[in-house]
Amino acid sequence: MSLRTLPLLFLNLGGEMLYILDHRLRAQNIPGDKARKVLNDIISTMFNRKFIEELFKPQELYSKKALRTVYDRLAHASIMRLNQASMDKLYDLMTMAFKYQVLLCPRPKDVLLVTFNHLDAIKGFIQDSPTILHQVDETFRQLTETYGSLSAGEFQLIRQMLLIFFQDLHIRVSIFLKDKVQNSNGRFVLPVSGPVPWGTEVPGLIRMFNHKGEEVRKAEFKHGGSYVAAPKEGSFELYGDRVLKLGTNMYSVNRPVETHMSGASKNAAARTQEYTAPNPLAKEELNLLARLMGGMEIKKPCGPESGFRLNLFTTDEEEEQAALSRPEELSYEVINIQATQDQQRNEELARIMGEFEITDPPSRSASKGDDLLAMMDEL
Q1: Alpha-carbon distance 75 to 38, whole Å?
Q2: Quick one: which of 103, 165, 242, 317 has the fewest CB in 10 Å?
Q3: What is the pTM for the complete model shown?
């Protein structure tokens, strides 16, 4: 088990969330100033210094429900609002995209390059905001410091943890289906062609050595694929050619993205069980979640600002239909964690969660450091 998995999971899922939101903001013709504010507010919240400090502390992965709660609040860190059905779809797209990227990483260490691709793209969203750019660059340096010296074995443990987290998610996504990288049952198709991992040779040759370590014979075999040697290793520097394209914005080409729930009742039942089943580690997870959310700086907003609703579906009718088919048992507005043995921590989390609830309309801060989390309200 690796205690260094959470930062990579959070940052990559967050990067995918920003890709999707940027795509939908443009598709719905949201005015440029409002769209920029939404992305700037969410990115500033996501890379808040105290929040990142808590995130990078060695810790176990959160449950899917706890992590989903964090993203609910992150997505509502600005004037934009999503209803439950759109938030479901957003989270489904995020998780399936990153699952695909983890599966296709040539080397376990390349999950770090995927993360850097996300950070590079995020910096493109905030080129006119030097303060937020500095936050992202600081996170990049912390990633380099934390993961730069890890061994291949430690990265393999991280990759295994990520795959375990995603193993039961098989949601069909239109882009993946059209590109034939996903089957109709929601499982991904792994390629048998393309570049091999950096530092390895193209398969097809067996070398045999004697007891002195001398090569005595060679034999070739048919590997059944179309492999080539990797041209070069991707850069792990602040600026550089990552080479690997996993983690880049697949929504940059304007095309509709839909999720398809094959066997809807079966998937709904499985998801309901996943999010409502009692957690035997609830007390410890409560502590972790309280510390992480406590790292989100909350400032008081001032000045009026009109909010708007974003729809992740093509039409309002599709969104309404998705909401009707959603099991009532699924509720992400409140996280139900039993921790009666730790009353002080329970009260602390209640205080923190209470600070996310606002009754006044969303508003804009007059300073550069716009309040982000004070505008998070219920979906």
Answers
A1: 9
A2: 317
A3: 0.76
Judged by DSSP in three states, 219 sits in strand
Coil, helix or strand for 115?
helix
User: Which of 59, 46, 61 has its CA nearest to residue 138?
Assistant: 46
C-alpha–C-alpha distance, residues 307 and 80, integer Å: 6
Q: Taking the mean position of all CA atoms in its chain, how far away is CA 213? A: 46
Distance CA 327, CA 319 (A): 14
Query: Amino acid letter at 165?
Result: F
Using one digit for the tens of pLDDT, what is the confidence trace for 198-245? Answer: 989 899 999 999 999 999 999 999 888 889 998 899 999 988 999 999
The span from the CA of 341 to the CA of 290, in Å, is 15
Length of the chain: 379
In sequence order, which residues have a C-beta less than 8 Å from that of residue 233 and are 6 or more positions away? 198, 199, 243
What tokens were used for 74? 């992150």
76, 146, 92, 46: CA torsion to nearest 10: 10
Tell me the sheet residues that pair with 259. Answer: 173
Residue 222 structure tokens: 């048919």
Q: CB–CB of 117/243 below 8 Å?
A: no
Q: Do the beta carbons of residue 364 and residue 303 sit within 8 Å?
A: yes
Mind listing the pLDDT tens digit for each residue in 282-301? 445 555 555 566 555 544 44
Q: Judge whether residue 319 has pLDDT over 90.
A: no
Q: Where are the alpha helices (DSSP H) in the chain?
A: 6-27, 32-46, 49-55, 64-75, 84-104, 110-125, 130-147, 152-166, 174-178, 264-276, 282-294, 316-324, 343-354
pLDDT digits (tens, 9 = 90+) for 46-56: 999 999 999 99
Q: How far is 208 from 247, CA to CA, in rounded Å?
A: 39
Nearest to 113 by CA among 136, 88, 83, 147: 147
- In this structure, what are the phi and psi dihedrals at residue 279, rounded to the nearest 5 degrees? -105, 115
Contact 296, 376 (CB under 8 A): no
8 A C-beta contact, residue 365 and residue 371: yes
For the record, the structure tokens of 351 come out as: 């205080």
361-375 tens-digit pLDDT: 444 443 333 333 333
Cβ contact 274:132 at 8 Å: no
